[in-house]
Amino acid sequence: MQIDGFYDTIAAIATAEGPAGVAVVRLSGPTAWQVAAQVVQTRGAALTDRPAGHFFYARFQAPATGEHLDEGLVLLFRGPASFTGEDVVELQGHGSPVLVRAVLRAVLAAGARLAGPGEFTRRAFLHGKIDLTQAEAVMDLVQAQSERAARAAQAQLCGQLGAQVAEFYRESTALCAEVAAQLDFEAEELPAWVAHAAAQRVAQLQTDISQLLRTSREGQLLRAGALVVMGGCPNAGKSSLLNLLLGSRRAIVSHEAGTTRDTLEEGIVLAGIPVRLVDTAGVREPTSPIEREGVTRAHQALQQADLILYLLDAARPLAAQHPHLMRQAFGPTPPPILLVWNKCDLAAPPPATRNWRAACRWRCALTPRGTRCGSPRRPVPAWPNCRPRWWLAWGWTRRPRPAPPSPSATARNWRRPPRRWRRWGAC
Fold first, then answer.
1. Is 280 part of any domain?
2. Residues 247 and 313 in one domain
3. Residues 296, 256, 395, CA angle at the centre, nearest 5°?
4. Residue 11 phi, psi dihedral angles, 5° rounding
5. Rounded to the nearest 5 degrees, what angle is found at the Cα of 75, between the Cα atoms of 72 and 81?
6. What CATH number is attached to the domain comprising 265?
7. Considering just the CA atoms, what is the radius of gyration of the chain in Å?
8. HEC states along the chain?
9. Residues 72 and 22 in one domain
10. Cβ atoms of 182 and 194 closer than 8 Å
11. Distance between CA atoms of 65 and 422, rounded to whole angstroms?
12. Which sign does the torsion angle of CA 152, 245, 236, 294 carry?
């Protein structure tokens, strides 16, 4: 198969844009050494006469005029012992964007072609240096937004996913060969356990593949991040909650309803997973074309979310918070929704939250952990492994004082339990 430009010598800046201490210009292709020899001014042996795996200090110059551009290190690699499997030269100079672009222009003037996006990794794949899963992991590793995402991409780059897929392929091939061999015999000529054993192996293979596919959702979240959209009626505290989670005053907060007119997106990392927090306009009957556009954008964001934080104002009745409009905004197949009763320092929770099936979280956006009924010294306990209880919506409560045991020989040894034991925390 003929691939356009496969035998060209390509070059590109291999480091990130912007000022830095060091910048790298990489060349790869059959004439990479010859092209680099026109740019590199060496002392002693010529560049093409030096051994592979060698690095040295040199000056970089324009091939036509000999103008001095920069100076730095030159690294030489011979294929197939290189990343791409071809001859590779790396020019390491100062990290000024002006200087590194000048060196790249000199390399292109010497006969190289500007590399396309991901072309170095593509050549590594075509030369058999990496498989397709590792090629995908290169981009995931470069764009990782958290340590957890970087570890997952590094594991894939080391070949863990490719090894699992290869094992599934070998098992499938072996099963196909056994089934094809059994077709050459009559049904009564083979023992019954032969077909049963093959069926068990097929079922086990299907289970293993299903388990691997279930991890794709986690990989997608690590790569792209989870889209968490905050919705609710106007003045429910969405912007205050966004500022609290970000730790900065990113959104404008006002007592006047309808302050937020457009979607506001910011990124944070929670538990190693990148999260994109989106603040939206309050959902209500619009009174102006600008507010109507804001509500429309809020609907679009809510329908695209991976998780919806639906904020309810504890100081206002539920009927005044437009629940029918929010149901319309969620769409026919809404994502997971987490109800958050906000402004708990202004009012007690409504009777509807006393049912643990409401699955609510009782929080105040003005404090880091939330409060109960305006008491800032009593933070809401967070026990994620507890079974749901209606008192999770209330927050902090006390266990009734235990009655002393009946008079006996052990009664004189009985002591009142410490206060920290008298909290609802046991599951």
1. yes
2. yes
3. 90
4. -150, 150
5. 170
6. 3.40.50.300
7. 32
8. CCCCCCCCCEEEECCCCCCEEEEEEEEECCCHHHHHHHHEECCCCCHHHCCCCCEEEEEEECCCCCCEEEEEEEEEECCCCCCCCCCEEEEEEEECHHHHHHHHHHHHHCCCEECCCCHHHHHHHHCCCCCHHHHHHHHHHHCCCCHHHHHHHHHHHCCHHHHHHHHHHHHHHHHHHHHHHHCCCCHHHCCHHHHHHHHHHHHHHHHHHHHHHHCHHHHHHHHHCEEEEEEECCCCCHHHHHHHHHCCCCCCCCCCCCCCCCCEEEEEEECCEEEEEEECCCCCCCCCHHHHHHHHHHHHHHHHCCEEEEEEECCCCHHHHCHHHHHHHHCCCCCCEEEEEECCCCCCCCHHHHCHHHCEEECCCCCCCCEECCEEEEECCCCCCCCCCCHHHHCCCECCCCCCCCCCCCHHHCCCCCHHHCECCCC
9. yes
10. yes
11. 84
12. negative
Domain that holds residue 23: 10-129
b/e code 184-207 from CB counts within 10 Å (16+ = b): eeeeeeeeeeeeeeeeeeeeebee
d(CA 282, CA 322): 10
> Do 123 and 34 sit in the same domain of this protein?
yes
pLDDT tens digits for 333-365?
778 888 887 877 676 555 544 443 344 444 445
Residues 55 and 188 in one domain: no
Residue carrying structure tokens 């299903």: 210
362-390: pLDDT as tens digits: 444 544 444 333 333 333 333 333 333 32
- Are 244 and 277 contained in the same domain? yes
In a domain? residue 410: no
Q: Are residues 84 and 154 in the same domain?
A: no
Do both 156 and 113 map to the same domain?
Answer: no
Q: What is the pTM of this model?
A: 0.63
**Does residue 21 share a domain with residue 61?**
yes
**Does the pLDDT at position 414 exceed 60?**
no
pLDDT confidence bin for 93, thresholds 50/70/90: very high
Instruction: Report yes or no on 423 lying in a domain.
Output: no
Q: Domain boundary residue among 219, 250, 265?
A: 219
Examine residue 421 and state whether it is found in any structural domain, yes or no. no
Number of domains in the chain: 3
Gap between the Cα atoms of 220 and 163, Å rounded = 20
| First-last CA distance in the chain | 64
User: How distant, in Å, are the alpha carbons of 394, 397, 411 from that of 355?
Assistant: 11, 16, 39
The residue to which tokens 């959104």 are assigned: 251
